[in-house]
Design goal:
Blueprint (H helix, E strand, L loop, with lengths): L5 H7 L4 E3 L5 E3 L2 H18 L2 H18 L1 E4 L2 H8 L8 E5 L4 H15 L5 E5 H6 L4 H15 L3 E11 L2 H6 L1 H18 L3 E5 L11 H22 L7 E5 L10 H17 L9 E4 L22 H15 L4 E3 L12 H4 L4 E4 L1 H9 L5 H14 L10 H8 L8 H5 L3 H21 L6 H7 L13 H8 L5
Parallel strand pairs: 3-6, 4-5, 4-11, 5-6, 6-7, 7-8, 8-9, 9-10, 10-11
Antiparallel strand pairs: 1-2
Helix pairs in contact: 2-3, 2-7, 3-7, 5-7, 5-18, 7-9, 9-10, 10-11
């Protein structure tokens, strides 16, 4: 149910949640909240009118603070890994492109069963656009999912590939960099305390020496680090990742990593103030985002270079004190590969397209809904069809773009369909958590990470109006 007013929303929560005049939230009936009220509240946080939506998001945030489901930074855990104090696991960073509430609930259920806490929920700059999920919404949905499933502990929410678009930077560098800063600021305000800065698109291989190739990359990475440190909430050290090779390009080398990190550290040091640097670094070792689709619809096997991944992870830890290397584009790899990531001490892998595929290809997926989506893609994204593409290849590559335009219809799928999705997703998440060895990481995360208590002003108050104006130009 979508409420027509904030008053109606508040009234629906009588006896379940109490909100004082000064904005203090207390939970009166946790069972009633979990059984039904949170489902309604999260839908209002996503689909409500502006005032209802903002109040619902604020209330979900404050309930998360009260119930111990709080956004946090994984920085301190990663730094401990860089010091050699923990090892043997690979953190899954999971992109929830569509049906986010159900997908997040499935992941949290799987985590609860095995005490997995070293897990990240993320969304890329590009995905924010085509899935119509702004940071404040994404965070609200995750906190609501945690409340629904009774999940307590730090919630690691990450801005994935906060990327500088090379063509836009070339035509107007100041505007493109400002666009990345704007989404970063929005993300920080929304509870994204983990940010992957991606300026690897600006690596220039026309230069012969590695420092020159990486210079614009490391210079802008350092500038973005300073920007994040200036705007991160008090008491939070945001986990920041860098990147040295564009996914799908040539495999990264030790020389490239050193050139990037040495230049980055020099630049960051020049700003003064002993600013904390990167906690991890993304490298290229053979995969492509979303996999490579063959004409028959199957996914081409990828020759992933685990030796490179292991060497670069070791180098990142031993010489630069980071957690290690990050592998992108991993969700469509063969299942028999995943145990290799913790064996090679890979710090983190990113998983996205495989979850999307599970939804589209699930036996419970209504055929008429898929047909409607594909008709839309044929009309509105025909310019993305490559010469020689089969329909299978075209739809596989573009169907991610239907999550935003059809968001309400995804959320409105029958309960039986969403339940079937959830059960299969939970099995998939359980598989990843086991193979990546993040089971029983609850105590490890608790040892190094303390989620900050951050309260936000209630919408409609003078404090909220003042908070919204901060950081904006006149």
């Amino acid at each position: 149910m979508i409420h027509e007013s904030v008053y109606e929303l508040k009234t629906s929560l009588n006896g379940i949640v109490d909100v004082s005049d000064d904005g203090k939230v207390s939970i009166q009936d946790r069972q009633a909240l979990r059984e039904k009220a949170i489902d309604t509240l999260v839908r209002n946080a996503v689909f409500g009118a502006d005032d209802v939506r903002e109040y619902a998001r604020w209330l979900i945030w404050e309930m998360g603070q009260a119930l111990g489901a709080q956004p946090a930074s994984i920085h301190d855990l990663y730094m401990a890994r860089g010091r050699g104090e923990c090892s043997g696991f690979t953190v899954p960073a999971m992109n929830m492109r569509g049906l986010a509430y159900d997908m997040m609930r499935a992941a949290l259920r799987a985590a609860l069963k095995v005490d997995a806490r070293a897990i990240i929920f993320e969304i890329a700059r590009s995905e924010i656009g085509y899935t119509s999920q702004r940071p404040a919404e994404y965070t609200s949905v995750l906190i609501a999912a945690a409340i629904k499933e009774g999940y307590e502990g730090p919630l690691f929410i990450q801005g994935d590939h906060f990327q500088v678009k090379a063509s836009a930077y070339k035509s107007n560098p100041e505007a493109e960099l400002q666009a990345v800063k704007d989404i970063t600021l929005e993300a920080l305000k929304g509870g994204f305390f983990n940010i992957d800065v991606d300026t690897s698109t600006l690596v220039d291989l026309s230069y012969e020496d590695l420092d020159s190739q990486q210079k614009l990359n490391y210079t802008l990475s350092a500038e973005m680090t300073r920007f994040i440190r200036e705007h991160q909430p008090k008491g939070v050290t945001v986990s920041i990742g860098g990147e040295i090779g564009e996914v799908g390009g040539h495999n990264s080398t030790e020389g490239e990593l050193r050139a990037y990190m040495d230049g980055y550290n020099r630049t960051l040091k020049s700003y003064g103030g002993d600013l904390p640097g990167l906690s991890k670094i993304s490298v290229q070792t053979g995969t492509s985002h979303g996999g490579i689709v063959l004409p028959d619809g199957s996914i081409a096997r990828v020759a992933l270079d685990f030796d490179t991944l292991e060497r670069l992870s070791r180098l990142a830890r031993e010489e630069y004190g980071m957690a290690g290397a990050v592998q992108h584009g991993a969700s469509t790899l063969p299942e028999e590969m995943f145990h290799r990531f913790p064996e090679t001490e890979t710090a983190e892998i990113h998983l996205a397209t495989g979850f999307q595929n599970l939804l589209y290809d699930h036996e419970a997926m209504p055929a008429e809904f898929v047909e409607k989506i594909y008709a839309y893609l044929s009309t509105h994204h025909a310019d993305e069809r490559k010469p020689g593409d089969t329909d299978t290849q075209f739809f596989y590559r573009t169907r991610k773009r239907a999550f935003g335009p059809f968001k309400a219809e995804w959320w409105g799928l029958p309960e039986s369909v969403r339940q079937a999705f959830g059960e299969t997703l939970e099995e998939k998440f359980s598989f990843f958590f086991g193979k990546l060895n993040v089971v029983n990481t609850k105590d490890l995360v608790a040892k190094y990470v303390k989620a900050p208590e951050i309260h936000k002003p209630m919408p409609g108050t003078a404090a909220a109006a003042d908070d919204d104006s901060k950081g904006l130009a006149d």
